[in-house]
Amino acid sequence: MTTIDYSERIPNNVDLASDRRLQRALESWQPKFLDWWQEMGPALPTQDVYLRTAVDVGREGWAHFGHVALPEYRWGIFLSERNPDRTIAFGDHKGEPVWQQVPGEHRADLQRLIVIQGDTEPASVEQQRQLGMTAPSLYDLRNLFQVNVEEGRHLWAMVYLLHAYFGRAGREEAEQLLMRNSGSDDAPRILGAFNEETPDWLSFYMFTYFTDRDGKYQLGTLKESAFDPLSRTCEFMLKEEAHHMMVGTTGVDRVVTRTAEIMREHDTDDVARHGGVPLEMIQKYINFHYSVSLDLFGGDTSTNVANYYTAGLKGRWMEERRSDDHQLRDAIASIPFIEGDRLIEKEIPALTALNVDLRNEYISDCSNGVKRWNAILADAGIDTKFSLPHVGFNRQVGTFSQHRITPEGKVVPQEEWDARVGDYLPNADDKAHVASLMQPVYEPGKIASWVAPPRSGINGQPFDYEYVHLA
Ligand SMILES: [Fe+2]
Ligand SMILES: [Fe+2]
């Protein structure tokens, strides 16, 4: 059964109607979610938005597009199709059938993994709450809201698992997911990057490029889980997530394109005067968002993650495409490490280096964006090249957090860092300039000065389509 039942109060493809207790519990969580959405979701008043809604989880034609009033969006519970022959791909239980229920001994760990993932979803909606006020076009405004409603749906995805499989403790965690808030002093979100502000649209594009991409890799490891409902949930979330990263990738493309245009038009690097974002500012935004996103991969060595792997809770990225024994009992991996003020590699058991393994996959994916943006500059005849800063740069988590490391990877004393940090990360002037560009453009077909229009619209619609009707 893959088709989604929209006749229910909570659209779903999990036959929710057959479990009255679960249905009632989720129906009592629903109004709390809607209250949270009103209070913490998009602040800009709108009549309706051209959104996609999932209608199926199969390969084709899974989404329907149409104008919807945001609070009436049909958030629901959608799991990918079940594969009845699926077996565990890694760890001690490799080759055994996957689990349809939570084994008692893994209950606490699985619940924790789901809560941490679930906490990031509403956090990003909160971080992006004010952005509608300064959208560079109706097309961008629509993309923001699409990302927001889908992050809201990802919260539903995790809350469903908590309610359906973790009893009373799960229901309590589901409540807490609406109580913590991004940046709150008393009850912040669990992970640091999700308590940072997303104050402007350059940050939003960077966030959807770098931070949503972290989400892709985390979901990729949970998709491998032996707990089949978690795996199927994450598989469908990944499908939605692809759009969020498209928003980020093409968003940064369009800023770079526009900056290159202004540079050529006025024959100057000083595009700030002409309403653009200078290349070195873009680089600083890359440095910031990339480094805070690296923190999301956790400590460089982790026995927790080794245990999750051995137990079958969380696999590696593309586990089944790896050509080793999928147990790693004697395997060795090398990870970067600092000795004195020298960066070296050290060898450790591969199981405890799994965070670095995932981080490395992420880093090579991120470098594709940099190549793309450099190709835009090269096509415009500009020699400047963007780069990803060193993995140890500006880190708050893990072995590098004890050191100050430049984007080039040099370990420097604190005083040198303090003197140079404004060259590495967006400083007050950079932020003020970007903020000054954030003037809303709500006329169909028009766009702000600092960003190029997209190459194509959404679902075959033109750029000047009325993607959003403001209130
Ligand atoms: Fe998400
Ligand atoms: Fe996302």
From TrEMBL:
Protein name: Benzoyl-CoA 2,3-epoxidase subunit BoxB
Species the sequence originates in: Sporichthya brevicatena
PANTHER family: 1,2-PHENYLACETYL-COA EPOXIDASE, SUBUNIT C (PTHR30458:SF0), PHENYLACETIC ACID DEGRADATION PROTEIN PAA (PTHR30458)
Domain of life: Bacteria
Gene designation per UniProt: boxB
Matching SUPFAM superfamilies: Ferritin-like
